[in-house]
């Protein structure tokens, strides 16, 4: 339908098994994501796209390890292994993904000093990526989200989609999560509380 768009979050090699920040079963969902792509007229992809030495990498902070949390000027930040570095194989879309039908690719996390989980905002929750304006200008009022990882980039994107006034659905069979310290349960509840439909 004309007023609906599918937003596919970060289906990249570094988030799949064998990648630098692998999500268990991250590659298993590719067929389900492709089915969703085939049934949507409008498709948008997001692509994590970090410069080397990004501030969210544990390697950028002496004595810190991946998955520790530090305070950044914009709030708490989980530190990650180096991943999705611009131009590397790890940052590429999975070869099995039928991504050629996408009409827009939103790259996020390219600002060295701030991370970006959401497809709509950087992690300061105020700096826009431009996706909200694009969807508004295209007359999109409903979005369906899928991809990686459920409890981080998918969830933050879904909650921000609701903030933009979009009717928002997450298709859980076409997502996989990291579940860092109970983050799956916590973010599932946050999505529900924000008004996201989970199917």
Structure write-up:
The structure is a single chain. By secondary structure, the protein is α/β, with parallel strands linked by helices. 21% of the residues lie in helices and 23% in strands. It has 4 helices and 8 strands, in the order βαββββαβαβαβ. The chain has helices at residues 30-38, 131-137, 150-163, 183-194, and strands spanning 4-9, 42-48, 69-72, 75-78, 104-108, 142-148, 167-176, 197-198. The strands form 2 sheets. A 6-stranded parallel sheet has the order 5-2-1-6-7-8. The two termini are 19 Å apart.
Summarize this structure briefly:
By secondary structure, this protein is α/β, with parallel strands linked by helices. It contains 4 helices and 8 strands, in the order βαββββαβαβαβ.
Ranges where pLDDT stays below 50 over 5 or more residues in a row are none
Strand/helix succession: EHEEEEHEHEHE
The count of strands amounts to 8
Query: Gyration radius, to the nearest Å?
Result: 16 Å
Broad structural category: alpha/beta
**Could you give a short account of the major beta sheet?**
6 strands, parallel
- Portion in strands: 15-25%
The outline comes out as: globular
Helical fraction equals 10-25%
Q: In DSSP terms, counting alpha (H) and pi (I) runs of 4 or more, how many helices? A: 4
Q: Give the N-terminus to C-terminus distance in angstroms.
A: 19 Å
How is the largest sheet built, in terms of strand order? 5-2-1-6-7-8
Mean pLDDT: 97
């Amino acid at each position: 339908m004309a007023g609906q768009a599918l937003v596919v979050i970060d289906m990249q090699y570094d988030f799949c098994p064998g990648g630098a920040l692998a999500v268990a079963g991250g590659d298993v969902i590719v067929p389900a994501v492709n089915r969703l792509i085939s049934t949507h007229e409008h498709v948008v992809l997001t692509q994590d796209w970090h410069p080397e030495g990004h501030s969210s990498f544990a390697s950028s902070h002496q004595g810190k390890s991946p998955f520790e949390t530090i305070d950044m000027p914009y709030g708490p930040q989980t530190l990650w292994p180096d991943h999705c570095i611009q131009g590397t194989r790890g940052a590429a879309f999975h070869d099995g993904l039928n991504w050629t039908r996408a009409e827009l690719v939103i790259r996020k996390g390219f600002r060295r000093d701030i991370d970006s989980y959401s497809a709509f905002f950087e992690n300061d929750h105020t700096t826009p990526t431009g996706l909200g304006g694009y969807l508004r200008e295209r007359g999109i009022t409903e979005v369906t989200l899928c991809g990686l990882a459920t409890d981080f980039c998918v969830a933050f994107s879904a909650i921000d989609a609701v903030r933009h006034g979009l009717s928002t659905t997450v298709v859980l069979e076409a997502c996989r999560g990291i579940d860092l310290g109970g983050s799956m349960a916590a973010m599932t509840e946050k999505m529900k509380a924000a008004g996201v439909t989970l199917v």
